[in-house]
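Cont'd.
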Amino acid sequence: GNSVTQMEGPVTLSEEAFLTINCTYTATGYPSLFWYVQYPGEGLQLLLKATKADDKGSNKGFEATYRKETTSFHLEKGSVQVSDSAVYFCALSRDNYGQNFVFGPGTRLSVLP
Amino acid sequence: ETGVTQTPRHLVMGMTNKKSLKCEQHLGHNAMYWYKQSAKKPLELMFVYNFKEQTENNSVPSRFSPECPNSSHLFLHLHTLQPEDSALYLCASSPGARGDTEAFFGQGTRLTVV
């Protein structure tokens, strides 16, 4: 079946440190891949996405590249800020109709000043 | 503002109560979802509606009853819940059409069953 695996954390970093959150997936076909972020007390917000192999999604300094050969979609940011503290979810859509999303367990990130 | 609005934001109910959660989207989407988010558990998909038709029910207990009267509104009717049903309930929508589309989430309803 389709699934998403990601490091669960928590991840604690100092401000301006480099961030990597690993995400790997199992899927039939060619899913679209997403990173969502959830700030305290809020719903999930789309951070970035990629829809085909070798695509790079980017937003707010975050980047992730769709790697079909390693079935991975790792999230990176060169210099984190305190305001990046949140829970990050890797996800895929199970079909090309943009439906039936499968989410990873989420990774809690804490950035210390 | 994500375009998906959930009400109420917080709800406390007794195990014998009946209540409903409401979700409304103004994005012109055709697919709507209910997710349950519990502490220390992955996000659980509960129900999927596509063009007002229920297309997925992930073995959800019958004490949760969804209703989708039109493509813009989704309800979750609750009755005789258990304390373990306490969680954040998230509604989402997506275009439901072929393409590189993503889900848009509401802010959730924090439900506490006492």
